[in-house]
Amino acid sequence: SGGGAAGADTSPNGTFDGGSGGGAGSGGFSGAGGGGGAASVLLINSVLRAVAGGAGGGGGAANVAGSGRVGSEYSSSSLNGASFTGGAGGTTSACTTTSGGSTNDGGGSGGSGGGYYGGAAMPVYAASAGECAGNGGMRGGNYVFTNDGTAVIGNSGVAQGSETVANTDGSIVIDYTPASISACTETPQTVDIYRVIKLSASGSCTWTVPAGVTTIDLFAVGGGGAGGSFGGSGGGGGAAIFRTALPVTASTNLTVKIGYGGGASFTDAWSGGNGDSTTVSFPSGLFLAANGGSMGVKGDGTNTKVGGVGGTAVNGGFAGGAGGVSATTVNTRGAIGKTGISNYFTGTVVEFGGGGGGGTHKNACTPLDGQLGSSGGAAGASCNSNVNSAGGSALAGTGGGGGGGGYGTSGNTLGGKGGSGVIYIRYAADAANAFPSSISSSLSARWTPDGLQLLDSTRKGWIDSSGSRASLANSAIAGTTTSITTRGPMDGVNSTDSNKTNLVVKGGTSDIITLSDLPTNYTLFSVARYVTGGSKGRVITTSTGNWLSSLYNGVNGCAHHNTWLTGGGCNTTNVHGWQIGTDQLKYFRQNGVDITLNQDANNGGGHYYLYNQSTSTGFGINNYWNGEKSDWELADMLIFNRELTAGEIRAVETYISRIYGIALASAAISSETDTAASFNASYFRGQYLSGMYINDTFTVEAWVNPATVCNSGNCALFNYEGVLVTKIQNGEFQYALWGVNSTWTWINTGVKIPAGEWHHIGLTKRLRYGQANAVDLYVDGQLAWTRTGNPYTDAAPNSTTTDVVNTNDTWWYLGFRSDGNYFYGSVDEFKLWKVARTGAEIAADMHSSDASSPNMQLYFDFNRNSLTNSMNLQNFAMGGAPRSDMIAQTSINYVDVKSVVTNGPYTTITFPRTYITQYGGWKKPDSVTAASVLVVGGGGGGAGQYTSQTSQNGGGGGGGGVFEIGSYPLASSTYIPILVGTGGLGGPPSSTQENPYGRRGGTTSFNSSLTAGGGGGGTFTSFNQMNGAAGTAGGAGGG
After folding, report:
1. Distance, first Cα to last Cα, the chain
2. Residue 333 main-chain phi, psi, to 5 deg
3. Phi and psi dihedrals of 947, rounded to 5?
4. What pLDDT shows up at residue 1034?
5. Can you give the pLDDT at residue 1?
6. SS3 assignment, position 972
């Protein structure tokens, strides 16, 4: 019956299809012809480079043995005219047989193959006196085009290359060498605290991450599609991606490709009219793409042709604008192209990725302007002096769609070119303002004003710049007055508590946005405020339940997770100021300070409030189901997919405060001055049920300066009831560990901690269970004592797993124990680790403010501007439990570690130990440009007694080195590292000659350049055959 179906190519308009086979005759046992094959088509960068002609179908057989012919090889004299589609096979209708008569019986011919050009239609032939049979179809033409970037199939249909012969298997082999990828050409600018880099040249290049840069923000747009020819529709705009907090490594390369715009053409599918995608490849394997827009549809002056589709959006992106539809009647224009995407990286709004305007249908025209594009999209064809122009071409770097061409007696013209894409990279010029890269992978949602899309009220959206999900749908953004604006330090008569002008989203009582629901274990940061003169209800809330965060009923500092998490009265401090709200299910902070109810607070219903906290669905802005609407502004919202640690929370709060110019509460700020807590029947405590545990291997360390009362009394240090307690009693350090199978036993190390002096103590349990030699005590970074027996009790050591440090999530104290004992003296730089630190690590810890290790669970630096206050202390430890700040149970006094004495015109500053701040050292007064500096190294320790020679004394330690400079220049506004070497410990009594050695003193340095070495430790031998230890550079040797 029917002939074989033709092989179809993948282009929408079937450009390179094969021809269909001819049908069989009306009677008998004859066969139909086979369909012709479609051509194989190769495009490189959307430009047609080669065509391999499809094979012809076999001819249908007559009722004659051996009839029906195979397909034929290409012949330049047997082409289907100028068509790329293969000719259809001939039928047997009225074919001439060998007897000369006509018949309608036999087999039809095979369809010819598609190609450049397609094979000709083939006739049937006489197979017998009564039947015809089919010839095979012709193979279509092959073509390989020149590699010079010119149009490969010209609009006139004239070939741009040369004919080539296919291999016997029907393939064409093309050898090519990719162009080498060079460094991108950058257009940099500084915008506020950011460095913004524009990359806009088409093609591939590499961008090298600058030194000190750890995270970047990225905005990229794909290429726009070309406009449709012959009065067709506008090209679609390229899609965009917007990502923030992408982690990078300095000096590594990102490989980027800027998508080119679609080329002007007659809009055949193979013509390269679609916009190319813009891509960014990271060394980590991350690959991001902003898709290009589609080309417009070729017009015909009668039927409406839909606009080219905007580039499709991916997670963290937004679709490009569609092209305007074509003109359908004479003397009209097509529609305006749709808007694209807005962005604020350059400091003002810039639009990208809009659709091109629809084409023009004009006969004998009076002047007619082309229809406009939008957001970088070009206008459609115009008409002037009875001539239709081509469609407008979009500008490079816009991702806009090309305009539709002209149609009619004034000329059928091409659509315009699409605009190439663009990439913007943004990073903090000062590394201190950068997003903390260590937690980038945990960011699960972020909504900022520059991701909100409001250009088209019918397709609003909000890009989640974490890349975790698609943009919000139009239906999620209700209301008509939501806008993107700026907010400076003042809102009318009210301060916003920011020293900057920030980009913000502003909404009224009817503006409601539904975001994505919070993860199960979440950490939410919001930056929001009430608008002066507006309604003050809820802002961050949910559409179900009774859940709110930060702002409520005209006050701030509120959290109610279906029951109160903070006090119901909340806080009334400047309700028009920006509020940094940090929210976890059972923990809330305002502007960097814990304001959650205490763990033992009663919610009025007879239950502890903590266990009644829960999340609700429908999380969003101003979308509470039962009224309580607000006039609001929002600068940022970040959601993490886990409960961040104390140090991570602190890092994000600091980041937010810096980029938006919002001061954290004074309790959250670490002073530039190194101060220590001075205890006199005062103390700190930690929350119970806060998830703070001590591992079976741990390290606890601090600088201590005991008062003289500790020489004869009991001075409680760090005490975690039921776990670990420490004290200085009668001048000696003691501890007790509670194991799961053992109870308290005080263990006296016998190590003296002198009163009135700064010394660093480090207690470490380095072996698990009850093993011997498990606990070490370090003083000033030097091993002073090892517990040779059981670390828990006076029983024999035990290496079995039956005894480990007890886990007891309860109150813990610094400077106090629940038996009523207090610490007297000063404490500074308190740290607790989840692991046993080595001696070398402890020796480094005591000079360092680095809190970045995930193994550090407590770190308090005690640095305060106010020297008497009752503010809580922030836990800086990166691995700390979320709610692990220390609560000042009483008012605490603080003292500066350095001493300052003024005598006449001179001020003398003495540093008795290393000066430790979060800023890197001592900040000199601004007016001081030079100083006389005296640097003294630590002295070496004396030798212990050699017990077999009790009548003789050990050698003395060497003195520390001394370095003096009369005038040392000091740069302005700098922090100067001050490292003070500790004295070497004295050697212990020993029956082994080597062991009594005293320890070397530490090296002292000023500004990392002026140094004085420590003295060498002394030794002992009755034969005078052993020298004391050598001092470090500048220090004396031991005796």
Report:
1. 115
2. -110, 160
3. -65, -20
4. 55
5. 38
6. coil
- Check residue 641 and report its DSSP letter: S
Query: Measured between alpha carbons, how far is residue 297 from residues 309, 329, 358, 405 in Å?
Result: 10, 16, 10, 10
CB 714 within 8 A of CB 729: yes
DSSP code, position 1035: P
What span, in angstroms and rounded, lies between the C-alpha atoms of 720 and 474? 54
Q: What are phi and psi of 845, to 5 degrees?
A: -55, -40
Same fold, 441-668 and 675-896: yes
pTM of the model as a whole: 0.85
What pLDDT digit, counting tens, does each position of 356-411 carry? 999 988 877 777 888 888 999 999 888 887 788 889 999 999 999 999 988 887 78
| DSSP letter, residue 821 | -
In 714-791, beta strands by DSSP E: 714-720, 724-729, 732-737, 747-752, 759-765, 775-779, 782-786
User: How far, in Å, CA of 41 to CA of 64, rounded?
Assistant: 38
In the block, residue with structure tokens 């490292």: 979
Measured between alpha carbons, how far is residue 304 from residues 231, 358, 518, 589 in Å?
10, 10, 45, 58
What pairs with residue 221 in β-bridges? 240, 422
CB 720 within 8 A of CB 700: no
CATH 3.80.10 correct for 441-668: no
* pLDDT(419) > 90: yes
Token pair, residue 215, equals 């995270």
pLDDT, tens only, 46-82: 566 778 888 888 888 888 888 889 988 888 888 888 7
Q: What is the mean pLDDT of the chain?
A: 88
Burial group, residue 328, by CB count within 10 angstroms (0-12, 13-18, 19+): middle
* 3-class state of residue 696 by DSSP: coil
Q: What is the assigned CATH class of domain 675-896?
A: mainly beta
Q: What is the CA radius of gyration of the chain?
A: 40
What confidence tens digit (pLDDT) does each residue in 102-129 have?
Answer: 888 888 898 888 887 888 999 999 988 8
The Cα–Cα gap between 667 and 888 comes to: 11
Q: Within its chain, how far is the Cα of 616 from the centroid?
A: 27
Q: Fill in the amino acid letter for 240.
A: A
Q: How confident is the model at residue 268 (pLDDT cuts 50, 70, 90)?
A: low
For 577, 673, 921, 931, the CA distances from 908, given in Å and listed in that order, are: 43, 16, 17, 10
Distance separating alpha carbons of residues 822 and 813, to the nearest angstrom: 10
- pLDDT tier for residue 131 given thresholds of 50, 70 and 90: confident
**Residue ranges per domain, the chain?**
1-177, 183-433, 441-668, 675-896, 924-1012
For 732, the token pair is 């000696």
In whole angstroms, give the CA distance from residue 89 to residue 542.
Answer: 68
